[in-house]
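Q: Start with the shorter request: fold the first protein.
A: Done. Sequence, then structure:
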Amino acid sequence: MVTGREDVTDSVGLLISILVRYPEVATINFDPGRQVLKFNFIVSRVLNRRELTNIKKQLLDSIEVFSMLEGKQTRISHISHQICDHLTMIEVQRDVETLVQEEIALIVQLLRQLLDDNLVAEANDSFFEEELLIQEEIIEHMLDSIRVTAEDKPLFAFREGGRVLVFNK
């Protein structure tokens, strides 16, 4: 577990900022070897095959259109799911080379619209709009930074009891 302030690298800070800004993101993994972020979302029920197909198609289409508008070619954009008890876990994988903060916002907003109250999210009432905008700026800055920095530690971050915990995998 990363504890002291001196241990906070840009990749650790990125994961923390994403979890703080987007309470819908349940966990996030950073794979430095592949330069991929894996966003995990929890749905409070089991989605059927048609719903899953629709969600995956809309997410992938949205990522593709967003990338076209940005003038970029994504290297990795993959959506998968897993059924656990009475929940559905959705994983969105994106390469950090072409990922920008606005795309993260798009993915989260699209899942909010598609899943409504079934998307599990931690209460985020304590933040003012200004603080959320600052988190978005931090996310963009740290994405830029990890594109050029050679990080070698796979990281895993999640929320527990109102705190964000980050571990080296």
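Q: Next, the second protein, separately.
A: Sequence, then structure:
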Amino acid sequence: MYDALLVIGTRKGLFLARSSGGGPFEVEPIRFSTVGVHAVAVDTRGPVPRILAGIEYGHFGPSVMWSDDLGTTWQEAGEAPIAFPEHTGAALARVWQLQPSPSEPGVVWAGVEPGALFRSEDGGATFALVEGLWNHPHRAQWQPGGGGLCLHTVLPHPSDPKSMTVAVSSGGVYRSTDGGASWEAANQGIRAPFFPEGAQYPEFGQCVHKVDAHPSRPDRLFLQHHFGVYRSDDSGGSWASIGDSLPSDFGFPLTVHADRPDTLYVFPLRADEDRTPVDHRCRVFRSDDAGASWQALSAGLPEGPVHTAVLRDAMHASAAGVFFGTRDGEVYGSRDDGESWFTVAQHLPDVLTVRAAVL
């Protein structure tokens, strides 16, 4: 059996939970107490795993820390690891995503607010702005979503280092095939009903909440939008709705199964009311046929009434299982594809991000 690590970023600190030999997860004492942790990653490419954390010091601003000893000690670059060049006139507000490249040793991508992509070539210690996306003519017209103008999803191609997809709220989906030198909007078919009638399928400006894909089929993308759940079978060239049979197609997280590229998970919420679970029941919905049908999964989850929510980066599927954390500080996991759930942690601060890895 495997050993697993669960990294949980919250509004007030970082928590690590470890499982040995498939046993129960043991939650370790808090790290970065009182500090917001909005992005985490576990980089298993090297001889030892590296944990990355995008933290927000408050008065001292955001930064990126890393640990090469499973959280015992942490390091930070001598100067701000992510900083906008002076010519941009921009200042870093938050790190929303940290994503190791699957095809380039040492490369880590960071998605940030305000709406920008950064690249690291030293394992996440220091980063440089990807100027091609920053200089895109659409960027000046992007509008912030409720969480800000955040680049929250980075999907590098599993084998082609020149190809990648990103998502910005509320800019939309963009893709590059030349290593980030140039970008094209990839939002065809995504409806944006907040635009005037006749203009509800714009080239860009969609309020995208999350995008994911399986490494074995990178051309098939799944997307949770403010107004729907979508699938693309051509790397974002066009999108089709797959959320019609869900009790609500509004939500924030979406994650794809670690082994099955047509299996995905979402957490539907009541969109136009209080953004709590539909019928106030804590249920994850899984599709095993790329969105053609959906199944509600709730065995082991609270029976309700439940008034919490799951944020965009707080659900993750890996070889260790499927995990999610809620805004009231509960973390749940499943080792049988969501058929049954167990409690990992309770009474944590507001959970912002979750990542699981097999060690």
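Q: Describe the second briefly.
A: The chain has a mean pLDDT of 96. Residues 4-83+90-358 form a domain with the Methylamine Dehydrogenase; Chain H fold (CATH 2.130.10.10).
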